[in-house]
Amino acid sequence: MDAETMNATDEYGIPIIPGPSDSAQRKRQAIIDAALAEFLTEGYSAASMDAITQRSGVSKATIYKHFGNKERLFLAVVGGVLPQTYAGLQCCGSTIAQAPDLRAALISFTTDWTRLVLRPDIMSLRRLVIGEIDRFPQLGQLWYRVTYDMNNGPLTEAFTELDARGTLEVPDPALAVQQLVAATLGVLQLVHTFSTDTEVDEAELSRVITSGVDLFLARYATA
Amino acid sequence: MDAETMNATDEYGIPIIPGPSDSAQRKRQAIIDAALAEFLTEGYSAASMDAITQRSGVSKATIYKHFGNKERLFLAVVGGVLPQTYAGLQCCGSTIAQAPDLRAALISFTTDWTRLVLRPDIMSLRRLVIGEIDRFPQLGQLWYRVTYDMNNGPLTEAFTELDARGTLEVPDPALAVQQLVAATLGVLQLVHTFSTDTEVDEAELSRVITSGVDLFLARYATA
DNA sequence: GTCTATACATCGATAGAC
DNA sequence: GTCTATCGATGTATAGAC
């Protein structure tokens, strides 16, 4: 691996690690899994390459051959797991505009989204990214883009269409999406951001989301 | 300083550092200022006691005499600066209930609160606390308590009173407060959490907060 | 590509003089 | 209380054999 390939990055500044070659893929995946676990529990600075070496079962030199150094390993691992985690929810925005019962559709959509976001592993990853933003600003950009733009975009289009059709009256669709997300998902996420041991209570989840959607509809639904 | 005094903590687990004695107070303050700056820029793990020593101008042994170890220094510094930063905003809740123009009062209150919360130094402190929650859960509890309960409590009482008076119709005042905060402050805070260089645009701040308050009033104001 | 062994720096914390 | 000097551990990263 020459110096140029070693320092290549994509448009977000996430390192591009050269592709597969043989069964060294399994070792690479073992390194990634071990590194993610170590980074999640220790943070970037306190995580040690020795610990990742022991967790992964490969030698330390192999890790450096594959990822170059600690910073690039961190960026590759966190930047790689992020889009893959959120891949399941992206296509649900377009169904909102055609739903027969808008209120039920909004509740269903925000509930799914909230359940995903409140998963303990995702909350931990979020805290890790937030805490390391000064060191890795690219990850902050990537996180915001993956978690919000991916869903806010289709939802904004849906509201624009519903406004044109007369079902909703939304002068600023992008802001309305932000408000809907904040009033549902955001309320619960705030609590879980600062408390690691709080369980997700199903009854409260339903109560908060329903109330948030009704808050949204009270302002934007046409009479 | 004996072992018992050295390990004393208050109800949140924040170390209690023995009181003043002489002009060693200036050295202690210099240590606190230097430590806060170092922790904010480097995080807990990457911050070095050597760097804090150099920043503060005192010797490393003096720091250990005053604060015991790195963990206690961190807890004392972060746990100490937090309540003091938020001290200015706590008494504004009771004025909401008596305001002649409720909409204007809500806009004024949430605007002040948002301006405080979006200050770069407070956003940095917030990221630091979030990133170190696994290591210092007490700070997460303290942060949530200081930043939210302190303002949510009086606001909840105000909404309860306004409900009894018939100005508002709020079946769940505590949830309504969370929604108001999320729809105003929360929308802007989310963006600045993941981006360090984004400036606070006055026009957008006014636009988002006004729209958030109107969203709130559309649901909870009586006709 | 993968390993073992190691170089070299920096870390948190302390001993002992004053 | 405050300093200088230092200890032992651990960190990242690499050299060289296979």
From TrEMBL, chains A, B:
Keyword check for DNA-binding: yes
Lineage: Bacteria, Bacillati, Actinomycetota, Actinomycetes, Kitasatosporales
Organism whose genome encodes this protein: Streptomyces goshikiensis
Database matches in PROSITE patterns: HTH_TETR_1 (PS01081), HTH_TETR_2 (PS50977)
Domain HTH tetR-type: 25-85
Keyword DNA-binding included in the entry's annotation: yes
Source organism superkingdom: Bacteria
Positions of the DNA-binding region: 48-67
Spans traversing the lipid bilayer: none
Name of the protein in its database record: TetR/AcrR family transcriptional regulator
Keywords on record: DNA-binding
